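Hi support team,

I've been running sequence recovery on a batch of backbones for a student project. Most finish fine, but this one hangs at about 90% for roughly twenty minutes before it completes. I'm not sure whether the input is malformed or the queue is just slow. I've pasted the structure tokens below so you can try to reproduce it. Let me know if you need the job ID as well.

Thanks,
M.K.
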């Protein structure tokens, strides 16, 4: 998958959050969006994901020709409308809520109805990998914040999509959870487009491309 931003800018009311972003994001590469609190990292990630509209500029989404998800490497190349981009993109973010009344089994089964998981993995496998087997029949509202974060990461990383967006992925994780996160990236990140929004280096240590949001705060040229 390839996502190309051309002259991308976003403002809320009169305040430009970022402007003049020309950037290609390509499968097989991990990108980090960095910057201080309130600088616009989450906003840019949501613009990339097509969840919020940009105020100026253009985003182009292309899949296929070896740029698809892990399981479908030979699909022909085609351009995707922004309204359909969500089918090819998963996201884990602090502001996205889980359905607290469900167990993790119910939650993952529900998620899979809309966005299937990688075909080589089952829901019991996922629960076991993220260390929630013993808690699998508890309602999510009884989970700790770190357990909930593991579920959010699983939903994003195990979805059968070519692009995974991760906003502050280690929020609430302990040392074992952080190691699990890195293991998931090593095991399931290859060939995908991964974009991490974070100001914590341990969350994006594997990223090879850095985008500093502060470079896009200047007045329009
Ligand atoms: N819906 C909105 N309406 C108005 N302003 C908004 C909206 N969403 C975000 N903002 C503002 O846009 C700016 C960037 O917010 P954003 O959440 O993208 O920053 P961030 O870099 O991800 O911050 P953090 O590191 O604290 O998570 C902030 O000033 C925020 O108040």
């Amino acid at each position: 998958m390839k996502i190309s931003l051309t002259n991308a800018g976003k403002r809320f009311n009169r305040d430009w959050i970022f402007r003049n972003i020309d950037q290609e994001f390509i499968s097989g590469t991990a990108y980090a969006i960095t910057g201080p609190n309130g600088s616009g990292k989450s906003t840019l990630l949501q613009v990339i994901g097509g969840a919020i509209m940009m105020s100026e500029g253009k985003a182009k989404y292309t899949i296929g020709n070896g740029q698809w998800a892990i399981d479908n490497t030979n699909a022909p190349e085609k351009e995707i409308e922004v309204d359909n981009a969500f089918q090819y993109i998963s996201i884990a973010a602090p502001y996205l809520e889980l359905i607290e009344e469900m167990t993790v089994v119910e939650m993952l089964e529900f998620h899979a109805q809309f966005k299937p998981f990688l075909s080589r993995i089952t829901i019991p496998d996922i629960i076991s990998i993220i260390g929630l087997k013993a808690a699998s029949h508890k309602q999510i509202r009884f989970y700790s914040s770190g357990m909930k974060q593991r579920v959010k990461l699983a939903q994003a990383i195990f979805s059968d999509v070519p692009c995974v967006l991760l906003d502050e992925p280690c929020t609430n994780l302990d040392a074992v959870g952080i190691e699990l996160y890195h293991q998931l990236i090593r095991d399931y990140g290859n060939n995908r487009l991964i974009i991490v929004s974070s100001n914590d280096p341990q969350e994006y240590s594997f990223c090879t491309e850095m985008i500093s949001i502060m470079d896009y705060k200047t007045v329009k040229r």
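--
Follow-up from support: It reproduced on our side and the slowdown came from queue contention, not your input. Residues 62 and 79 are 4 Å apart (CA to CA). No action needed from you.
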